# Entry
Amino acid sequence: MLRKLLSQAGVADAEAFSSHSLRRGFAQWAGMSGWDLRELMNYVGWRDVKTAMRYLDGVSIDQKARFEQGLNRMLPETALASTPQLPSLPEVAHTTIEVSIDLSAFNGGRRGVANALRDMASTCLARFQAQPLDEDGRRYRISVPTPSSNILDDHLYALLDELHRIADARECFLEAICRDPATGRHWD
# Structure
């Protein structure tokens, strides 16, 4: 819908934009405007603190501390004994995605690249039952829950953000592409 509206508005590179850029930009703006984490999570509809924190890369340490203070005012937890039994949920469809990772170290060394690949495989890719497609550990097949196209986009853009964060932490340049082999659609 966003791309369609941008295209109708005459934006030449409308396909380069996504709802992910809007969420990230809004979260950054909210952090810089003094919102605490509880307010941001309630407004956006995030239930998981980890999800919210992924969108706050450029926020200063003071702002993150203010966000964390807001966690103390989160909604109270419900007692496990009073939790009603939920009906069984329908099966969620999954999409098979191929992830290609191209890493190079800032300083040309190999250790940072090897550590980054290890961290990527053991953390963010492991969540999606990643299967390596090559011996170098640079191509993977993952299974992504896909109740809707928007949720698939959310999962893949969050994955790409995590991969970039790991590459930065290990002082590496990263080019990563997620591709749906069935449709040819890609995310980068």
